[in-house]
Amino acid sequence: MLKYELIPGQLLHEGSITPDNIFASAPCSEEIILLTHSPEYLDKLVNQQLTASEQRRIGFPQSPALTERELIITQGTIDCCHYAFETGVALNVAGGTHHAFANKGEGFCMLNDQGVASNYLLHNNLASKILIIDLDVHQGNGTAKLFENEPRVFTFSMHGQQNYPFHKEQSDLDIPLADGIGDVQYLNILSETLPQLINQVRPNFCFYQSGVDILETDKFGKLKVTLQGCKQRDEMVLSLAKKHAIPCVVSMGGGYSPDIKNIVEAHCNTFRTAFDIYG
């Protein structure tokens, strides 16, 4: 998608980041992917064996380049984990592929980057309690299903009640929002929920799905959050993570406003906010 090129380009142009702030990842190894996804599904992705129905469910025609892209995005989120241990926060310009299940993809998601990264951390004893904060307008159904029987990962999804997916899985905490909710209601609900949740879960690592499809301009979302409200959301999440000294990895998630400028500005605000908070 074009936004993945425009976001770093804009941040570099305005001086919010320098080339030293950017890293590139290699494709994730099959060994790591298999901590989360089934061998049969990974084999289909690698060997281009998805059926026509499976491709329609994902929303993309299969290709070797697309599979490699997904493997790179996933490794990018894992690499972000190591940077977050050093600096407190790290951001993947892509990722947030929360509709991917262990054995299938859907909703433009093929591999679940935060799911794979969570299992990587647990497998390598780098974290013992993980909180996934999913504030995309769409429920993180794949992520919820992946960790439904994993007490070391707490999944929290605050999403549009009437948005895709129409069959919701059960996260550890779901907050479905009515159509048309704007800044005040949205931020009040989040401010009443997230601090208590952090105190309850006591995570030593968190992932943040910072989808900007909550914007009032989004063509698929049904909420009415402004650019400023979206930025305040990011400030709330990242300020709490820093306050509690929880390393945090951010994946960009969705954004489908007709004007690409709105998408890029909202995503860039997430990066600007991280730099403002973490210095």
Please tag this protein with its features:
Arginase, Chain A, 10 helices, 6-stranded parallel sheet, hydrolase activity, 279 residues, HDACs, His_deacetylse_dom, globular, single chain, alpha/beta
The CATH topology turns out to be Arginase, Chain A
Percent helix range: 40-55%
Which CATH-level-2 architecture?
Answer: 3-Layer(aba) Sandwich
The first-to-last residue Cα distance is 29 Å
Global morphology: globular
Q: Tell me the number of helical segments per DSSP (H or I, 4 or more residues long).
A: 10
The overall average pLDDT, rounded, is: 97
Largest sheet: 6 strands, parallel
Question: Count of DSSP E strands?
Answer: 6
Rg from C-alpha positions?
A: 17 Å
Structural classification: alpha/beta
How do the strands of the widest beta sheet line up side by side?
Answer: 1-6-5-2-3-4
In sequence order, what are the helices and strands, one letter per element?
HHHHHEHEHEEHEHEH
Protein name: Histone deacetylase
Keywords: Hydrolase
InterPro entries: HDAC_classIV, HDACs, His_deacetylse_dom, His_deacetylse_dom_sf, Ureohydrolase_dom_sf
Family: Belongs to the histone deacetylase family.
Describe the protein.
Belongs to the histone deacetylase family. Keywords: Hydrolase. Residues 12-268 form the Histone deacetylase domain. InterPro entries: HDAC_classIV, HDACs, His_deacetylse_dom, His_deacetylse_dom_sf, Ureohydrolase_dom_sf. It holds the Pfam family Hist_deacetyl. The protein is of the alpha/beta class. The protein has a single domain, classed as Arginase, Chain A. The protein is 46% helix and 11% strand. It is built from 10 helices and 6 strands. The protein has a 6-stranded parallel sheet. Helix 1 crosses helix 10 (260-278) and helix 5 (64-87) crosses helix 6. It is globular, with a radius of gyration of 17 Å. The mean pLDDT is 97.
